[in-house]
From TrEMBL:
Residues 417-429 have a biased composition (Basic residues). This is Fatty acid hydroxylase domain-containing protein. Keywords: Membrane, Transmembrane, Transmembrane helix. Residues 391-400 have a biased composition (Low complexity). GO terms for cellular component: membrane. The chain crosses the membrane at residues 62-80, 92-115, 136-157. Residues 190-324 form the Fatty acid hydroxylase domain. Residues 364-375 have a biased composition (Polar residues). Residues 343-429 are annotated as: Disordered.
Amino acid sequence: MTSLQAVRDQVLYYGGYAQGRYLPHSLAELYGRVVSRLTSIIAIPLPLLSFLALPFFGGSPALVNLVIFGLTWSALVASYEPLTVEFGGTLLVRLVCFLAPALSALVFDCAVPSLAKSIKARGRKQLPTNLGRKKLLEVVVVSVVNVFLAVAVQAALELLTTEVLHLRSNIKVTSLVPLPWTILKDVAKGFALRGVFRYFIHRFLLHTWSTPLKSWHLSWQHSVQLPFSLMATYDHPVVHLLSQWLPVFLPALLFRFHVLTWHVLLAVASLEDLFVYSGYAVLPSSIVLAGMARRADSHFAAVRDEKPAGNFGQLGLLDFVLGTTCNDEADVVDDLQSEAQKHRLEERAESAVQGAMSGIKGEQQPNTSPSSGEEVNSRREDEVDQAGASADNVPGAANDADVDADKDADEDTQQPRQRRSNRRKARKA
């Protein structure tokens, strides 16, 4: 009875504690708590968005914005728990950079199929409406659930590390803002490692070795013949966490990135998945993203036609090096060469260099133009040269005059002789 009474007292105590701290007592209090939570979630990513806008401004305003961002970030970290800052920004990045655009693209494909098929790489065959209403609804639900599942798993790992094991956090949350160069360097490093992890997981665990992961991957994601944006997260939940979420989170965990670096890396990875699986032929980058999207389509087509699978990486560099490019498919080097020929990069580079050189010469000509004193000196030198040339021509003119005088004298001597001969002829006559 004593132990039962103690358990009852503990239940009553924790129930009253939870009711007093967590449960609202009225509808107005419930409304206030909901509005407070929503505003806190909205306020968390504002420093991140202002930081991402810094590269678009140059000069002193960028420095001012950087200082303002640092002060705002320090106030934000001081006002909220590190876990709230980390996962509020993570959830917002996934919503803004992947889930909302992917759902918008799906609505566009279903609402205006006649226009959507004209910008799809494979035309009408790549429209999501070909799946049917039931399958399409399944894809939407599973994709959305997987997005939130990845965020929940990350939160669970963070709580396990900090609250249970009492270790430092997996992602570093500090009031100090890293320099932009440090963020770019860490993002490039994480992006490279993500590509390596994703290639080997996709190739061996999902397509080579006979494991439950392979059968799950083929029966879930490859049940759709051609991809669209939501297909990036449509897979078995375990396969999605292993092949999509873990490769992007593992570099941040190994190097313990700053939370801002983690958010930027997650944003870049989300946008890449959005465009690569979109199936659109019109993409922001015609050199890189177009080839990545085409290789993703070829990967789905090869599995559908029961051909040897290839194109396990998105960028295509490891496929080119290790020889796993799909048959009759252009690799990343071919894409770069064709794009270079298409845009005539060499001719543009030469014309740009020539334009720059001509601009430099045009700037140097006003600087090297002679002054008034130099113009007078040059005129004097020209006059001296002309005088010298005329002096050099004097002997030639004198010689010509002598020759003309000799000719006149000869003619004068010849004329009297001719007169005398004429007189003699007249006398004889």
